[in-house]
């Protein structure tokens, strides 16, 4: 394993070498590579969702390469190296698991242990002078994920609705406010209200202990699957969706939905 990682690091050094390396790799910066890092993380999640272990192995390698890439650029600039990244992660894991690596007793359940984890993280934020409850929720997260994290963090200090009933009331309120701005033709305010609506939806997901990004990915997959059914049925008559109409496609959508229910 050590040999494999060392080989990967050596390849990265060669790629970044201004004399004989890859021109594209040499030109990259943290900012230009960051989108690829995010993309690779999503491809890992996609392979997991499809339960494709061979693809997961490949995608995890791609993600590891992103870490090596960033670490190499940091080393070139004199900030830190790959080994420093690994060492910092190891230190953090030991620090945040005193019930495993220290003398603290483990909590009776996973949820209780997770709460203890959050307490440790809060102490770390305080030590780093991050006094705000929301200070270290990364801005670069997908918006729905960040919304859920923001509300989860606020909820830990008591700023939360007692139950999902109040969230549904707020959801209805935001829908009505969005309707008003749409009717008024104010696109900027409608955009703001749509954001508020999505934020409440993310909050509802958090209350239901559902990751909103996961839920939306599943909904996307379902839409693709059912629309594919529509295309397949129309193709039997030699037609495309453009040659159909909404009423027919809606009926086919319902047929796809019924077929899925029959299989469960």
In short:
By secondary structure, the chain is mainly α. It contains twelve helices and no strands.
Structure description:
- This protein is an all-alpha fold and 264 residues long.
- It folds into three domains: 2-96, MazG-like (Helix Hairpins), CATH 1.10.287.1080; 132-210, Helix Hairpins, CATH 1.10.287.1080; 214-263, no CATH class.
- The protein is 75% helix and 0% strand.
- The protein has twelve helices and no strands.
- The radius of gyration is 24 Å and the shape is globular.
- The model has no long low-confidence stretch (mean pLDDT 91).
- Keywords: Hydrolase.
- Pfam families: MazG (PF03819).
- InterPro entries: MazG-like_dom (IPR004518), NTP-PPase_MazG-like_C (IPR048011), NTP-PPase_MazG-like_N (IPR048015), NTP_PyrPHydrolase_MazG (IPR011551).
- Residues 28-101, 169-226 form the NTP pyrophosphohydrolase MazG-like domain.
Supply database-style keywords.
264 residues, Helix Hairpins, 3 domains, 12 helices, globular
Ordered list of secondary-structure elements with their pairings:
Elements: H1 2-15, H2 23-27, H3 30-49, H4 53-76, H5 82-96, H6 98-101, H7 110-127, H8 143-155, H9 164-184, H10 187-207, H11 212-235, H12 246-263
């Amino acid at each position: 394993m050590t040999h494999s990682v060392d080989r990967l690091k050596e390849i990265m050094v060669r790629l970044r070498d201004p004399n004989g390396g890859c021109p594209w790799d040499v030109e990259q910066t943290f900012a230009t590579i960051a989108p690829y890092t995010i993309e690779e993380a999503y491809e890992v999640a996609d392979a997991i969702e499809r339960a494709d272990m061979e693809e997961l192995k490949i995608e995890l390698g791609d993600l590891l390469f992103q870490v090596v890439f960033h670490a190499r650029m940091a080393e070139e600039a004199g900030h830190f190296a790959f080994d420093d990244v690994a060492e910092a992660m190891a230190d953090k894991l030991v620090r945040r698991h005193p019930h495993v690596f220290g003398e603290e007793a483990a909590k009776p359940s996973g949820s209780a242990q997770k709460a203890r984890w959050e307490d440790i993280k809060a102490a770390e934020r305080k030590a780093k002078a991050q006094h705000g409850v929301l200070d270290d929720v990364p801005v670069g997260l997908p918006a729905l994920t960040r919304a859920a994290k923001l509300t989860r963090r606020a909820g830990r200090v008591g700023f939360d609705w007692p139950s999902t009933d109040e969230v549904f009331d707020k959801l209805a309120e935001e829908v009505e406010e969005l309707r008003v701005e749409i009717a008024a033709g104010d696109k900027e305010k409608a955009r703001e209200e749509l954001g508020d609506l999505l934020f409440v939806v993310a909050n509802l997901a958090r209350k239901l202990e559902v990751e909103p990004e996961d839920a939306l990915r599943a909904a996307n997959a379902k839409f693709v699957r059912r629309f594919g059914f529509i295309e397949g049925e129309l193709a039997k008559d030699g037609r495309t969706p453009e040659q159909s109409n909404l009423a027919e496609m809606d009926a086919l959508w319902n047929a796809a939905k019924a077929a899925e229910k029959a299989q469960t």
